[in-house]
Amino acid sequence: MFADRLTTEQRQAVFDLAVMLANADMDVSEEELGYLKTFSEAFGIEFELDKSQINLEETLRVFDSKRSKIILLQELIKLSYKDGHFGEEEQDKVFMIAQKIGMNDSDLFLKIERWVRQGADWLFEGEQMLEDGY
Hints:
single chain; about 130 residues; mainly alpha; TerB-like; 6 helices
């Protein structure tokens, strides 16, 4: 997990933003809940799903390096894929966040999205092989 390269404050912000993103389509899936639970347990973050009071600009301010911004986008896109697809509402939210943190280079955004998609495909293929008994 690349989030282990973030500070505690940045991990909390990733979690808060991920919760906001999971609620973007008004339907938090079991897979998204699993991601949030795993992330919170891995980093000792309170599992709280009401982030309606979060100030987006203030939350994004903790991402002060290009590395931390790329990891943030990677984590948010990874969450978006948990329900099987990177939906339009989710894409719009993630791209809006990318713009707010100064990472609105569409080529970089697509490169991060491709990285996440390939990782998700890799995990899926491995799970399928194990289930099929190979």
